[in-house]
Structure formats: structure tokens, C-alpha cells
Amino acid sequence: MYYDPLRDKTPYGATASGQPTTFRFTLPSAEKADRVTVILRRGTEEFRADLRFARFDGDGLVYEGAASVPTAGLWYYRFESVSGGRTTYYGRGKGGCAVAGEWLPEWQLTVTKRAYKTPDWAKSGVVYQIFADRFARAGEVRFCKKGRLHADWYELPDIAGEGQDYRADDFFGGNAEGIISRLSYLAGLGVTTLYLSPVFLSSSNHRYDTADYMRGDELFGGDEGIKKLCAEARKHGMRVVLDGVFNHTGADSVYFNKFGTFPGKGAYQGKDSPYYGWYTFYDYPDNYHCWWGSTVVPTVDKSAEGFRKLVCGKGGVIDKWTKAGADGWRLDVVDELPTDFTDLLCAKIRSAKKDALVIGEVWEDASDKISYGTWRPYFMGDELDGVMNYPFRRAIFDLITKGDREGFRDAVTLIAEHYPKESMDVCFTLLGSHDTVRALTALSGVDAPYTKEERRGYRLSDEYYAFAKLRLKAAAILQYTLPGVPCVYYGDEAGVQGFEDPLNRGTYPWGREDDDLLGHYRALGELRRRNANALRGTLRFAEDDELTVFERVSEDGKDVLRTLYNPCFHAVCREVNACDAFTGEGVDTLWIPPLSACVVAFSAR
């Protein structure tokens, strides 16, 4: 039998409530069935749709039929065949393909409330994540914070403050003017979207402990710096996505004001504070609910009317920064936000700008995400456009470092199968972020030194660096050709190394880049530009005994981009009769070096 949800189900990916979904199921010609049925269920609700014999396909019999699911949600399905009074059930096997047996896993069918569109501008090109304090600085550096400003841009980040507790209070002064001064560089990488770490007022270098949502951080350039950056980015063909941290504020903030930094009365200072109801105190004032036990980031009660008004009200946070030029938001720890608040927030973002992009930080499969015992309906049509695609990162790394071809195919197929295609097209496909070990370091295979001080100063040997770079080049090819939009963490393209936070947040090495690696990323950006039609199409895997091979196929079927990864320690040869996707030159015989990837293009135009 044969069934591949990426090939044999239409539409590709999720479907919409009431929209016909066509299933094609193939049985061996020797197993002609009296009846083939697809069985769909949600909880105790179940219905069946018969598939009719449609055609012969080689030595197989293809059965085809359509079913319309009436209500939105997560549905699950399996197949049943009846032949001569014998009933056989088929469920989801490895790679999403069908296997026969009892009590097998089912396929998931994500059914949205309606068909919906995500912003077209976000579906092509490249996303570039900038940790605002560490990318580039230019012009006046307005330092007015506790802690210290590094005099040397190339110093390593501090790992401990006073008392050996990490305080995140060392700064390098990266600012809006610095980013503006490097927009031509980013354009050369093919960047079309800038995703900025938080840029609102904060006492820390990461700014995930917001002090005032309505003020741009002065060190970054203040309100005017943010406005100017958005405007200048547009001139270079780029949009700007801001990081919205709405689960918690800083303890050192206008709202909590634990240290008396601000003139008004914060929740910590008195129960008569207008912000007191925003927080949950267990034993006032020092015992309060905070994110993951960190007292520097007290958690906000998202049902508090005042907080909702500040963020989503007229003239509030979303309105102000949309007017300043923001084109979208990445919602930090979105799975910590209650569904009704996420609904409100997403609706507000889209009312402020019709084609705004909303990306959520979700580390798992976002279609069936359970958080605090509740399913999160991220892809039903009212909430997120897409998410940070960490499952693809894990799949790529497992393929590259462990040779797990089967796991790669299974993980990628699962996400592509579960997500609405409109959402899949705008997910950020990443190899690294401010929350992960640097890609080059992670791919090197070295064991992390025991102490943080040792990890801080650690740099790969020339031999390990060359090995890690070989792996990173292959990983980047996969990243750039899989569904979604590649999201490059600043400096990965230049050879930046580093273990965990804050060692993964070093400065961009201007003038000290790895030019060879940088050239590879520039070529990948150009590859995406030239092959945008195929890269906005569907995904399918091809069978190969040694290689991992997948294709992106344009909607009209005329353009095909094929990626081939060789996990072996020897070169592999394949006959392709195509064009090298990097050079455009014709290729009949393709030699793929060990631990490397190649991309070829086919066109019927």
C-alpha cells in the first residue's frame, strides 16, 4: 500500500472547515478491495468517506475520494480496506507513509475555521535576527545605564556581575544607526526582513525585562532611532519585525518599580499603585509570581484591564510602534499567554496594519501545542501567522550530526503536513537564535568545557572549525531550501562561535569575518531570489539509498528545486540533467562531496 500525505492529500497541509479534502490511497494490484474508506474522528465524533477506484498506477490501484470536515480543530484519520470480508486498517508509519496493522498512530488533519492568507511580503527572501546591542554601533552612543559600556567592540561578553551572579548589565552600544549603516551589507545577503530583539527601555542588554513599552531605549536610539530604522529599511526593500514581550515586565520598570528607579508608584511600592492589579503577590511585596522563578521578570496578569488597554488600546503599544513603522511582531513565549489575550493581541496587530506579520515563539509543533493543560489554537485563522521553526532546526542538526535521515524526513513531513501552507510559508526556519548555542559551535561536535569561564574563552581549533564550517554550509543549504523563510542569527554567516547565553550573544566581527562562509550565505540569498517560484511551492521527498533528497515544486509544476544532502564520508554521484541552482550552469552528472549538500533546478518553461 502507499499513502504520503504530502503527495496524496489535497490541499497540501491543513485544510479549512467545509472545504473538500481529497485523499488518494494506493493498494498493490494483487489486493483489489471491495471498499476503501477514510475514517476521520475528533474525540468521540467520527465520520467516514468512501474512496472510489480511480486508476491503475504502475503495479498499484489508486482509490480516490473527498471529505469535508464541518468543524474546525484537530482531526485524526486512518484508512480501512475491505476485501472478501477481510478488513485491514492502515495508519501512520515512518515518514508519514502508510503501514497496515491494528492500533497504529493516525494522521493528523488540521482544520482551520476558514481559509486565510498570510502576508505575501513575508514569504520570500531571508529573515535576519539582530540582537540589538551586539550587531553594529554608529553615531552618538547615549549610555545612561547601570553597568558598563565595553570600550572594545571585540571583547567577549561578561558572564558574571557583582557577587558572581549574571546581571546582563554589560553593553556594547549596538544601536539603530549602526544597523542603518549596515543595511547595504544586509541587502547583499538577500535580507528582506529584519527581526529585532527588544528595543524598548530596559535595564538589561537583552531588554526582555521591559521597563517602559512606550519608550525606545535611549542606548538604541530612542523613539526616533526606531522610526528612522524602519524608514531606512524600507528604502532597502526590508521590513522590520519587533519583539513583543507581553508575558512579563522588568522588576525595574515603570509598572513594578522595585528599585524606585522611576518617579511614579509601581506595584512593588504600594497596593494603591495603578499597576498593583497587574501582578500576583503571594506575600506582598517580595513574594510574587515571576517567569520561571526569575524575580527580575514578574509575570503580568494578562486579564488586567489596564494592561490590555496599554498594549491593545487606542494609542497603546501596538498603535504607537506600528505608526513608527513596524511591519510585524514576534510574540515572546506566546505559549505563556492565555488564548483570549493572544486573540485580542493578534486582532489588534492586524487592525493596526492589515498586512502585519505575527510570529510566535513556540519550540514544538505549534499545531497541537498543549500549554498549561490547554490546546492552543494558533493556526485556526485568528491568531498566529507562523512560528519560530525549532523542529526543523532539530531535524537538520540530527541529520547533520547523527546521520538521521529517517528522523529528518519524519520531522519535516510532520510539520509540513500539520501546518496550513499559508502559515508554513512564513515560519522562521532557523539554525540558531539568542536562546541556542551558536550553530557553528553546535555543529563542531566538541564537548563543552566544564566551567562557564572556560566556555567563555573557548574557540574551535582550526581542524574543528573547518569541520564545523563544512557542516554549517550543508545545514544552511537545507535551511534555505526547506519550507518557510530562513532566519539567520546575526554573525552566523561570518563565523561567530559561542556556547549558551550570554556566550551566544557576542558582537558581530566587523572586519574579521570568514569571507568564504559569508560568500556561501550571499550565494544562498541569491539562490532564493532566483528560485522564489519553486520555493513558494510544495515539498516532496525522493527515494535514495544514500542521500537525503527533497524537492520544492511550484504550484504550476513547472519549476522544481531539488536539494541533495550526502551524509556519507565518500563522494556520491548522481545523474540529474538539470542546472546548478547556484551558478545556473547545466549539469548532467552531479558529484556530491562527503557531508555536503547541492541544489539543482529543473524548469519546464
UniProtKB/TrEMBL annotation:
Q: What name appears for this protein in its UniProt entry?
A: Glycoside hydrolase family 13 protein
Gene Ontology MF term list: hydrolase activity, acting on glycosyl bonds
**Biological process per Gene Ontology, one example term:** carbohydrate metabolic process
Keyword entries, A-Z: Glycosidase, Hydrolase
Sorted alphabetically, which Gene3D superfamilies does this protein's record hold?
Answer: Glycosidases (3.20.20.80), Oligo-1,6-glucosidase, Domain 2 (3.90.400.10)
Q: Which Pfam families match?
A: Alpha-amylase
Q: Which domain of life is it from?
A: Bacteria
Q: Which organism is it from?
A: Candidatus Limadaptatus stercorigallinarum
InterPro entries per UniProt: GH, GH13_cat_dom, O16G_dom_2
